[in-house]
Design a protein that fits this description.
4-stranded antiparallel beta sheet, globular, 24% strand
């Protein structure tokens, strides 16, 4: 049985995409996921399943569509993958709440000039983009490539959900 962390895109952010975490946990259990645990109201859920990561993603996206009537993209990482994302942080001195990690389905493309870049620092990972926001994420106008399909979590959140996932192992 594998342990996975699902990160939902555009859930409970800025008043849009309302999805109570209790409903998300129930949906996950209905799918057949075990040891389901959500973390904060932004669509983070840790669970165990015998499904592959892709099978879990497809099942959760289908169930979310039934519930919400619209597509909600899900990005799944294993604890090992999340641990690697954290270890590969190119901005280790940045405060955790000022370091966003955009989770993507594939390799990022940072070849074009970044729109809205001010004092931010950006680096590509394997399936993520790291962005350090020295003036704060809420003040930034930076538009990262892949932001329309990916989902961002700050480093503090990634560390917390990894710790929760490791307790399931």
């Amino acid at each position: 049985m594998g342990i996975y962390i699902a990160f939902l895109r555009s859930v409970n952010v800025g008043g849009t995409g309302k999805l109570p975490m209790s409903d998300l946990a129930r949906m996950c259990r209905d799918i057949g996921f075990h040891d389901v645990q959500t973390y904060i109201a932004s669509g983070n859920v840790i669970f165990a399943t015998e499904m592959t990561p892709e099978g879990a993603r497809v099942s959760l996206e289908a169930r979310l569509y039934e519930y919400c009537g619209k597509s909600i993209r899900v990005h799944i990482r294993t604890p090992e993958e999340l641990s690697q994302i954290i270890a590969n942080n190119p901005f280790p001195d940045a405060a955790g709440n000022q370091l966003g990690v955009l989770l993507l389905d594939g390799a990022p493309d940072l070849s074009a000039p970044l729109v809205g870049k001010q004092d931010e620092h950006v680096a590509a990972g394997s399936r993520e983009v790291y962005a350090h926001y020295p003036s704060g994420m809420g003040r930034s106008k930076l538009v990262l490539p892949g932001s329309t399909t990916g989902t961002t979590r700050n480093m503090n959140t990634l560390i917390k959900v990894l710790n929760l996932a490791c307790k399931l192992a």
